[in-house]
Amino acid sequence: QSGASNFGEKFSRVKFSPSLTLFGGKPMEGWIAVTISGLVTVSLLKPNGQVLTATESLCRLRCRVALADVAFTGGGNIVVATSDGSSASPVQFYKVCVSVVNEKCKIDTEILPSLFMRCTTDPARKDKYPAITHLKFLARDMSEQVLLCASNQNNSIVECWSLRKEGLPVNNIFQQISPVVGDKQPMILKWRILSATNDLDRVSAVALPKLPISLTNTDLKVANDTKFFPGLGLALAFHDGSVHIVHRLSLQMMAVFYGSSSQRPVDEPALKRPRTAGPLVHFKAMQLSWTSLALAGVDSHGKLSMLRISPSMGHVLDMNMSLRHLLFLLEYCMVTGYDWWDILLHVQPSMVQNLVEKLHEEYMRQNAALQQVLSTRIVAMKASLCKLSSSTIARVCDYHAKLFLIAISCTLKSLLRPHFLNTPDKSPGDRLTEICSKITDVDIDKVMINLKTEEFVLEMTTLQSLQQLIQWVGDFVLYLLASLPNQGSPVRPGHSFLRDGASLGMFRELMVVIRIWGLLKPSCLPVYTATSDTQDSMSLLFRLLTKLWLCCREENHITEPDDALIDECCLLPSQLLIPNIDWLPINDGIISKLQNKQLVRLQFGKAPGLVGHTVSSQFDAFVRAPGQPKIDHLRRLHLGAYPTEECKSCTRCGCVTMLKSPNKVTAVKQWEQRWIKNCLCGGLWRKMPLSYS
């Protein structure tokens, strides 16, 4: 429901059970395969590493399987579709149930209704398309709809079928004996054809959309109005090099792409096109992205190509309609956790400010629990959006720092343990947040007295292993307070933190925790270079931080810092050495370099020598120069100008971290396990060469 404000109403979740569960309903890992001889094999991976394997015939009369596809039902069953490759033979469907009995994998199969393609029953086309070349369910979680393609040497035809429940008519004789009333009418499952194409060029590959059909306009009566949703379309690649986007149900043409070898008028009949001497370059395999705004394919020459699919499908849309559509897809990715890289391909620099503001407005309408779940994902989205415009690029550093702050806060609070097992409802971390928000005293020791310090006791090795993260907190607080007198410059990284009461509150909580830990092990405290040996740097910073936090703790009532606070912050550079914050590269990603919509050629293993939007000289201080000392951004360890350790880099934000952990402490492992799959911004990792510059 695109008009609803609550994400729970806008995107309703359909109950979908796993095919096999462990204790407590946890899904079991495994895979299923269909063999060419008509067998189905299942392998299950148990938590202890043991693999259970079973093989069963799909039916009693085994036959050759040339094509097969697998889909899943909401009830946990698996549906397998098979074809022997001949259009004269039926397309068979089977329900597969997997279970574990006495520590052995068991497979039960059941035959479902089959179908013959419409083209084989049409007298005019009976022998025209002898082979079925493509067989695919319309979605991995939709076993009721299937796409079939039959071909000859030069042409193809595509059909879309749907499995429906239909009432079985009862003979009048039996009606008189026992009348059928209402729901008692017997029902049968029957395949019905939804749509079919006319004669097409030979299809070489098919790509299906991943968006649920419920998110798109499924009314066939308005199938021609395809401006609003590319998720409606599936992609068909042809041997002449062209790609057609057609409606996923009506199979009507929505858009067309011609490769360099297939330029021709769109209305030219297929029969009149001259045949070339050799085969044209065409796609052999294709995949649509999560929101169907990009298409990746491998062609017959082994090249990987990526096509941008316009949300408007070539129609001219006003800015408000485009913004509304992109915002809807960003919200969908935020709720589901899918990557939103393909949406960024269509965001123009002029859209960024509006998208970020509207995304924040929608986020603030959600309840507190959902906001907490989505808190890091929306910050990562904002960071990737702001990279696309030179007017918002300064905020990228702030968003990355906020992600890092949230991660540190969650990790350090998770280390706190209650002193007694029969604890009250709130955890030590929750009590810390509550007490720090209630007690507004500027003296850190007075705030600390109100806490149960026994809940903060940790092993000495653990405290020492966290020193690099603690140092970052201390350095960032000092940097923020020292930059307060320059708050009129929005270009300066850290500017948004000066009005962010929630983030300043997090820093305040962490300062209290660090103070307590410093009493246990002084060497874990952040190191400051002060001009006076007697100065208590943490008390000074906490006092100034609290005054700044009091100015913006209420989001709807933000006041300006008074002159006394600004004067004290002006004196900080004469009292403490202000650290250099290692900001992430502003323009490392490739997405921002594709905005001019020109053809870009890349080569595997070579960094793209592309020029994106120019970064003005005011950002030069935050762009890493060759030969400059490098830092592990996640562990906060210095790597030197030319690191000798193997590192990995985020493909989205440029964050660099070592592949192997230099520390064996459990708390550090817990921190590092957060970043095994993705960077803190949600980007994927790539391995970097040694001594990278």
Quick overview:
Helices cover 26% and strands 22% of the residues. It is elongated, with a radius of gyration of 31 Å.
Task: Please characterize this protein's 3D structure.
Residues 329-517 form the Mediator of RNA polymerase II transcription subunit 16 central helical bridge domain. It comes from Zosterops hypoxanthus. It is found in: Nucleus. This is Mediator of RNA polymerase II transcription subunit 16. With 693 residues, the chain is an alpha+beta fold. Among the domains are: 389-575, no CATH class; 586-692, no CATH class. Helices cover 26% and strands 22% of the residues. Strands 8, 9, 10, 11 and 12 form a 5-stranded antiparallel beta sheet that branches. Strands 4-5-6-7 form a 4-stranded antiparallel beta sheet, with no helix packed on it. The chain has a 4-stranded antiparallel beta sheet with strand order 13-14-15-16, with no helix packed on it. A hairpin with a 4-residue loop joins strand 14 and strand 15 (243-247). Helix 13 (467-482) crosses helix 14.
Features:
693 residues; five-stranded antiparallel sheet; alpha+beta; 26% helix; elongated; four-stranded antiparallel sheet
**Spatial gap, N to C terminus:** 49 Å
Structural class: alpha+beta
- Main sheet makeup: 5 strands, antiparallel
Strand element count: 24
How large is the radius of gyration? 31 Å
Average pLDDT:
84
Rough outline:
elongated
How many helix segments? 17
Strand content: 15-25%
- How much helical structure, as a percent, in the residues? 25-40%
Low-pLDDT runs of 5+ residues are: 217-228, 265-273, 610-622
